[in-house]
């Protein structure tokens, strides 16, 4: 009653043993592919971690630089500007990690929050009535009167270019892991598991436990079993090319590090522009939002924030170098894996599975 290992000679197998063999080849096939995938997956996961760590380090450095700008150059508004600065960098981080947001909305939301502070602390430092309604009016007016000139739009453009490549790379790395995990657990067809049993275990039914499959026979069986997986070859090659393109984009003119550290200068230029145009802005704001209450004399001292020295240049240089080195190592390794899915059958038939150094092997029917 054997279904797979049928042979003219007497056999020591039963139908139940054939079923056990089918379970064994499924398990072994999954383990073999997992072993092949391990190094590739390890490299991608390692790069995701390294990329995120270096990126977070750069982000913290850029955020501290921006905070120190307010604490040294714009102390009257430093305390109140802390929250909008934090929100801006949180939004940038979420964008790179794939959140449904845009660089433009993050940057413009920041400038919306910044304008009431610039207007009431720098352009008209005597304002005391900064009610919710008046603040909201200033926020909404920012979009119409454009107090920060071209600098807010320039910041959007510069960040969008560099952050886009980083966001795409982050998503592409996650996609790579997803593809690898899916191929590990691709279901075996009934025909495939029968062919694997015939190749690996049918010799056992005749007491031939040491004989192994012939190389050509193994390749035919594996190629048949892995036809759906090897179809990924063209897409995988294209995927590697895309990774190469994205890492080159990040390292070229749209450099992530330069863009993040340039945020401080963009904000500074924007505030200076608003101050230079203070009288015109005041005239327009008075028409739209009305005139707030004024107070003679200095601002209360609790608005003054002590200056903190930010000494993170060394951290920035290390993160910058680390990110560049990791990119180079990673893309070099990934380029070597271009043929991963095209050669998967050959790699599974390598090693202990087949008989290479002997004149006898199993061809599916007999010892040859």
Automatic annotation (TrEMBL):
GO cellular component terms listed in the entry, alphabetical order: cell surface; extracellular region; plasma membrane; side of membrane
InterPro entries in alphabetical order: Glypican (IPR001863), Glypican_CS (IPR019803)
Membrane topology: Lipid-anchor; GPI-anchor
Pfam families in the cross-refs: Glypican (PF01153)
Source taxon at top rank: Eukaryota
This protein's UniProt keywords: Cell membrane, Glycoprotein, GPI-anchor, Heparan sulfate, Lipoprotein, Membrane, Proteoglycan, Signal
GO biological process, one term: cell migration
Localisation per UniProt entry: Cell membrane
Known function: Cell surface proteoglycan.
UniProt similarity note: Belongs to the glypican family.
Name of the protein described by the UniProt record: GPC5 protein
